[in-house]
Design goal:
The chain is 41% helix and 18% strand. The protein is of the alpha+beta class.
């Protein structure tokens, strides 16, 4: 499993714009401790979020909550144009914002897929462009404007029902077997899953399944399985008093030493150190 470097902490609202394609380094499966809005302003790509792989086109966006497994998979024709916004919870006036959420009782912003209606894409990109200008640090007021624009951005997603709209299409029918496999892994990660077992669930040979799984999702079967297990173990470390050995066993690892070594390799600190200082 390729080690993922710990995500850089976001201290201020951050926005970035760029192009991606098959010329780009393969994005690692990852999660981070801040929110991300991934907006596709041109081209097409695939995007894995938790247990689903989506086909995105111009105007689609992904809203990613902290701790959620995700990554994009890019094609070359045409190159993808993307704009990404990163922010922490404290950057949002939550008490004012939540009364407009589709679920008024929600206590947190959750991950979702959505699409900006074609009629409003120019307005949305215009707002992102203003954010890009302020992010460069025009003057001492720039961070204040960024906070206002972020609030406006989220309100815009609510006004145009992006948060509650029908999600972009899942991968097409020929890749439905891999979508079934990712869901099966996500639902059964505590069990001693094997490549043979999961490939049998979708009636593919282990060799073909392994190749197709990586082609469609952008990561290997074992890599995906380990990441899902690690994310659940990470949550257990912070929310339970269970021993590290018990957490390892409860989340599908049959060897606590392997779990400890893998956890440190991926997150840069041991499970014990993470429990004491998760930041």
């Amino acid at each position: 499993m390729t080690p993922a470097r710990p995500a850089r902490e976001i201290q201020r609202i951050t926005i970035a714009k760029g192009k991606r394609g098959d010329f780009s380094p393969r994005q690692r499966d990852h999660a981070h401790n801040h929110f991300e809005i991934f907006y596709l302003s041109g081209g097409k790509c695939r995007f894995l979020l938790k247990d689903c792989v989506y086909q995105l086109e111009k105007g689609d966006l992904v809203f990613i909550a902290p701790g959620e497994l995700h990554h994009a998979i890019y094609d070359s024709n045409p190159s993808c144009e993307i704009i990404m916004v990163y922010f922490q919870r404290e950057h949002v006036d939550w008490e004012r914002l939540k009364k407009w959420l589709p679920d008024h009782s929600a206590e947190e912003l959750h991950s979702f897929m959505g699409s900006i209606p074609a009629l409003y894409q120019e307005e949305y990109v215009g707002l992102l462009t203003r954010m890009l200008s302020e992010h460069a640090g025009i003057d001492q007021y720039s961070d204040g404007f960024l906070n206002c624009y972020l609030q406006e951005l989220l309100l815009m997603l609510m006004r145009y029902s992006v948060m509650s709209a029908e999600e972009p299409d899942l991968l097409n029918a020929r890749d439905a077997d891999i979508l079934t496999a990712t869901k099966y892994i996500y639902q059964n990660y505590k069990k001693p899953l094997s490549l043979n077992e999961v490939s049998a669930q979708v009636s593919l040979s282990p060799t073909y399944f392994s190749k197709k799984f990586k082609q469609v999702t952008g990561m290997g079967f074992k890599e995906y399985l380990n990441f899902v297990r690690l994310k659940h173990a990470q949550t257990a470390l912070l929310t339970t008093g269970n021993t590290i050995t018990d957490i390892a066993l409860e989340n599908g690892f049959n060897d606590s030493n392997y779990f400890k070594d893998l956890f440190k390799k991926i997150y840069g600190k041991s499970p014990r150190e993470f429990r004491k200082n998760p930041e």
